[in-house]
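Backbone shape codes:
***
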Amino acid sequence: MHWINKLFMYSCVSLLAMAQDEPLHLCASGTVQLALSAVLSSPHVVKCTSAVGISPESLVKGDRLTSAQVVAFRDSPSCAAYHERMMETLQRIYPACVDSTSMVSTTKMGATTFAQRVKSLTS
């Protein structure tokens, strides 16, 4: 392979790697909370918490649930809709950043599946 072609290929690979591994910065104060505020005031939250038998605050904080409450959360279409809206909202935060409370990127938080969320309620 000609050295110019090698140099071009190396440059392209390096740029691609840099774009994928670009360091994320901490989110500005309140970024995640502000983005999620509309989701937290949605009718899905009220229906979900009613189905599970918990307060909206407990849902937001991610308090541990009883086995029966986890089953109710898992089986509630409103809880699934609430989760989906939260994930979509987190994925739309641009530029992606690291939440200072959890130290997790908004991209990674937004990739959480409903099954992972259900599992996290008891762990």
